[in-house]
């Protein structure tokens, strides 16, 4: 079985955009409206042909545990639980949010290894974006701009030895 990497994070941070960058597809729906990915969506990452892995996109964890958002949150949790490594995606433009803190707490409880991926750093000071998330205490923090494929090779280099 191939190793599994799960993308988690609140809606609209760019998880699906990153999924598409990893799989080189447009399979994941990227949308301006938060919460468009409701189910788990699996794809192959073959950016390094010798070390393929499966990547799972999720709908994003939101505050609202009711109804659709609740089902989406469950999907994110299941994805993280079955994953070998979790990529916790946050928005470098908006900085840390209360919801990010909630997700961080939950992620720590799962005991899963995770990297903090600071997306949307295009046009921004990458180091400043990363520093804003320093108190999250993640062992690996990487600035990327998924929409421009920036930082994706560097992220891949960090992921592969962990699978
Ligand atoms: P998801 O809800 O976390 O899956 O987020 P999406 O991948 O659907 O992206 C949400 C929005 O953020 C879309 O409008 C994307 O075009 C935009 N976005 C994603 N990645 C980047 C990036 O690297 N830079 C910028 N500026 N926008 C991005
Ligand atoms: Mg999405």
From TrEMBL:
Q: Which domain of life is it from?
A: Bacteria
Q: Where is the EngA-type G domain?
A: 3-163
The residues that the entry says bind GTP 1 are 9-16, 57-61, 119-122
On subunit structure and binding partners, the annotation says:
Associates with the 50S ribosomal subunit.
Question: What does this gene product do?
Answer: GTPase that plays an essential role in the late steps of ribosome biogenesis.
Q: Which family does it belong to?
A: Belongs to the TRAFAC class TrmE-Era-EngA-EngB-Septin-like GTPase superfamily. EngA (Der) GTPase family.
Q: What is this protein called?
A: GTPase Der
Origin organism is Arenimonas oryziterrae DSM 21050 = YC6267
Write the gene name: der
Question: What residues of the intact protein does this structure contain?
Answer: 1 to 163 of 464
């Amino acid at each position: 079985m191939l190793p599994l990497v799960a993308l988690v994070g609140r809606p609209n941070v760019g998880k699906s955009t990153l999924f598409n960058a990893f799989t080189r597809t447009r399979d994941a729906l990227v949308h301006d409206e938060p919460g468009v990915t409701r189910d788990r969506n699996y794809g192959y990452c073959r950016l390094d042909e010798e070390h393929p892995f499966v990547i799972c996109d999720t709908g994003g964890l939101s505050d609202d545990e009711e109804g659709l958002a609740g089902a989406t949150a469950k999907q994110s949790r299941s994805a993280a639980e079955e994953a070998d490594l979790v990529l916790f995606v946050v928005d470098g433009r908006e900085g840390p949010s209360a919801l990010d803190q909630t997700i961080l707490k939950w992620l720590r409880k799962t005991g899963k290894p995770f990297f903090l991926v600071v997306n949307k750093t295009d046009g921004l000071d990458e180091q400043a974006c990363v520093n804003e998330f320093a108190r999250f205490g993640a062992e690996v923090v990487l600035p990327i701009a998924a929409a421009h494929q920036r930082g994706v090779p560097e992220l891949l280099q960090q992921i592969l030895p962990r699978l």
